[in-house]
């Protein structure tokens, strides 16, 4: 019993929080409007039932035409007015519902941006958000809360109206003195027996209807999990021209068909059979009990009418009200089952929106930091990415002095980019600490600290917005300064060719006349964005990895010229691009194994730098010879 109440309390709390979110996503009036519609729809049939009973009574008692017409007009006009109200409210509610998905997606994205990068990018948080979005795409979660709670409340109204209408039926008596079986029919004993039997049958119907709906709902949610796989094959793979080439060249059709059959069609077919089995067994218990009760009620009402307890009009009224009562009771059970099953999904949404950042936010200001006289230092730093085991950096120590040109080189996976992510506090060290002028960087205000850096990452992203907004990261910007940054980045001439210049949108996602850029052009605009920020520390984290070595070297050299007196860090696995740097550090397996100038490092012929330099130089020489043949 304790577990029951604990579970009920937890379900109630989840539903309460869900209704709060409904106000955010669907508008504060959506639930109220939806509830009004459902109550009106629940009550409307009773008007028809009641008026129909009056009309039949009037006909059997041979009332005048005017009296019959009055009942018909009351029923017709009332239901017409209610229908108009329902349609009007529905139209407004539908508008709110249509904007729900955009609001939902925007709220999830805003939450992700509020979290620290480490948490937002963790696999568990990503998986949680993926489940929420998948549930939303299939109409579960919040929409079910709004619908089911409103439906249950309307069912309560329906039950109250039904009880009021049939309250006089059980204890109604014939004015005539009856004997034998008809006396038993007219006695309160039969009425009470019917009430008890009805309560038992309704409880049985409710139980099995709820169980059936819950099981079917859970099976449906298991089927939903296969949707991302199907979407991947149908939308993200088979329909893309790039994938189409591979499918044909490598004859992947058989593999794909087998995967879809084994991983999607066969499992979902079994689940659909399970759904039918549940409906055909558990679900039918509810149907049988409901129909049996309906038949007995109809017999009871007929016998009471035959005994003279009430007229033919009341037969229609009572039977209709009892039928609606049974339906309302089973609907409450069904919606309760839906809500309980849906709470597992809704709990995920609430869990995601209640996430808080783990990264410590200090209070020290960076205003007193002199960029021209600063030192970053890594003190025995070790780091492993969240939810992974291997350490990427191990007891790592290094200094970065202001004004220097530092190149960080090494093989892929040696920890170069990880070091940058720790430096700009996208992640915090697992062990050790990083200081700026002797102060642990975790003690600085996080937002202020980030303003110290302008970084062009290897996997940088441009927005499908106008060029000017991409460079300034704002819809309000200094046009002259944007042009200067584009010129320094070497892409001004290209932008001047655009029909709308700085107002020209990049890509065609939002604008049909958007411009598709080459990889080199994208990289130069990303560099212009870093220049526009005018931060004291600038970093290029292999943003040119897709370019050939000569093009990369040109971009690095240009950036070195325009960086001025700023501290500049260059990350690359190509040694030829960073020869101009005043200091080069060589990464290997999460540690610095060499440092010095290009010439100094080459003097150590047994060192890693010399090994990499000779291997890359040989590769380029071989390719040059082939090109000359």
How would you characterize this protein structure?
With 629 residues, the protein is an alpha/beta fold. Among the domains are: 1-167, no CATH class; 173-309; 457-534, P-loop containing nucleotide triphosphate hydrolases (Rossmann fold). It has 23 helices and ten strands. It has helices spanning 2-26, 30-60, 65-98, 100-114, 117-120, 123-137, 142-170, 180-186, 188-224, 227-237, 241-249, 253-280, 282-306, 312-353, 416-423, 446-450, 467-472, 479-488, 492-496, 519-533, 549-562, 598-603, 608-628; strands spanning 375-383, 393-401, 405-410, 431-436, 439-440, 453-456, 537-541, 567-572, 583-588, 591-596. The strands form two sheets. The protein has a six-stranded mixed beta sheet with strand order 6-7-8-3-9-10, sandwiched between helices. It has a four-stranded antiparallel beta sheet with strand order 2-1-4-5, covered by helices on one side. The N and C termini lie far apart (86 Å).
- Major sheet strand order: 6-7-8-3-9-10
Measured between the Cα atoms of the first and last residue, the distance is 86 Å
Helix content: 55-70%
Structural class: alpha/beta
Number of strands: 10
Major beta-sheet overview = 6 strands, mixed
Q: What is the average per-residue confidence, as pLDDT, rounded to a whole number? A: 77
Give me the number of helical elements. Answer: 23
The coarse silhouette is: elongated
Give the low-confidence spans: 621-629
Q: In what range is the share of β-strand residues?
A: 5-15%
**How large is the radius of gyration?**
37 Å
């Amino acid at each position: 019993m304790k577990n029951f109440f604990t579970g009920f309390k937890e379900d109630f709390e989840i539903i309460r929080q869900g209704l709060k979110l409904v106000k955010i996503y669907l508008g504060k009036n959506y639930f109220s409007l939806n509830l009004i519609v459902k109550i009106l729809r629940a009550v409307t049939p009773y008007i028809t039932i009641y008026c129909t009973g009056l009309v039949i009574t009037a006909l059997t008692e041979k009332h005048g035409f005017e009296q019959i017409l009055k009942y018909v007009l009351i029923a017709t006009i009332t239901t017409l007015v209610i229908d108009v109200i329902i349609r009007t409210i529905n139209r407004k509610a539908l508008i709110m519902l249509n904007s729900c998905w955009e609001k939902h997606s925007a709220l999830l994205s805003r939450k992700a941006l509020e979290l620290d990068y480490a948490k937002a990018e963790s696999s568990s948080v990503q998986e949680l958000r993926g489940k929420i979005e998948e549930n939303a795409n299939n109409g579960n979660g919040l929409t079910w809360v709004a619908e089911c709670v409103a439906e249950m409340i309307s069912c309560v109204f329906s039950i109250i109206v039904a009880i009021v209408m049939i309250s006089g039926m059980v204890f109604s008596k014939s004015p005539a003195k009856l004997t034998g079986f008809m006396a038993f029919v007219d006695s309160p004993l039969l009425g009470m027996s019917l009430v008890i039997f009805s309560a038992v049958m309704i409880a049985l119907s409710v139980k099995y209807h709820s169980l059936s709906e819950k099981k079917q709902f859970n099976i449906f949610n298991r089927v939903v999990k296969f949707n991302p796989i199907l979407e991947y094959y149908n939308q993200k793979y088979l329909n893309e021209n790039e994938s189409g080439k591979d499918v044909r060249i490598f004859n992947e059709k058989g593999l794909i068909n087998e995967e879809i059959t084994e991983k999607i069609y066969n499992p979902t077919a079994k689940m659909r059979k399970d759904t039918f089995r549940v409906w055909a067994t558990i679900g039918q218990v509810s149907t049988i009990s409901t129909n049996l009760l309906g038949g007995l009620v109809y017999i009871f009402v007929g016998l009471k009418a035959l005994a003279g307890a009430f007229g033919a009009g009341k037969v229609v009224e009572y039977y209709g009200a009892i039928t609606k009562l049974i339906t309302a009771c089973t609907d409450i059970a069904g919606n309760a089952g839906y809500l309980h099953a849906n709470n597992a999904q809704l709990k995920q949404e609430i869990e995601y929106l209640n996430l808080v950042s783990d990264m410590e936010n200090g209070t020290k200001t960076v205003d007193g930091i002199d960029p021209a006289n600063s030192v970053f230092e890594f003190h025995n730093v070790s780091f492993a990415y969240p939810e992974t085991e291997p350490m990427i950096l191990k007891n790592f120590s290094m200094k970065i002095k202001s004004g220097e040109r530092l190149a960080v080189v090494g093989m892929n996976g040696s920890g170069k980019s990880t070091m940058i992510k720790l430096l700009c506090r996208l992640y915090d060290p697992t062990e050790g600490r990083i200081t700026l002028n002797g102060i642990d960087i975790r003690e600085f205000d996080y937002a202020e600290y980030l303003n110290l850096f302008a970084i062009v990452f290897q996997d940088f992203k441009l927005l499908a917005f106008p060029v000017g907004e991409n460079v300034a990261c704002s819809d309000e910007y200094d046009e002259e300064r944007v042009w200067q940054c584009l010129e320094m980045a070497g892409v001004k001439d290209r932008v001047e060719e655009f029909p709308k210049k700085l107002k020209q949108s990049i890509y065609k996602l939002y604008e049909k006349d958007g411009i598709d850029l080459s990889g080199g052009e994208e990289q130069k605009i990303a560099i212009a964005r870093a220049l526009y920020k005018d931060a004291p520390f600038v970093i290029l984290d292999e943003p040119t990895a897709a370019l050939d070595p000569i093009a990369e070297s040109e971009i690095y050299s240009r950036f070195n010229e325009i960086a001025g007196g700023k501290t500049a860090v260059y990350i690359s696995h190509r040694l030829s691009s960073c020869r101009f740097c005043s200091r080069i550090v060589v990464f290997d397996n999460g540690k610095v194994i060499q440092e010095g100038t290009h010439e100094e490092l080459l003097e150590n012929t047994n060192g890693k730098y010399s090994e990499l330099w000779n291997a890359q130089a040989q590769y380029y020489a071989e390719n040059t010879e082939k090109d000359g043949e």
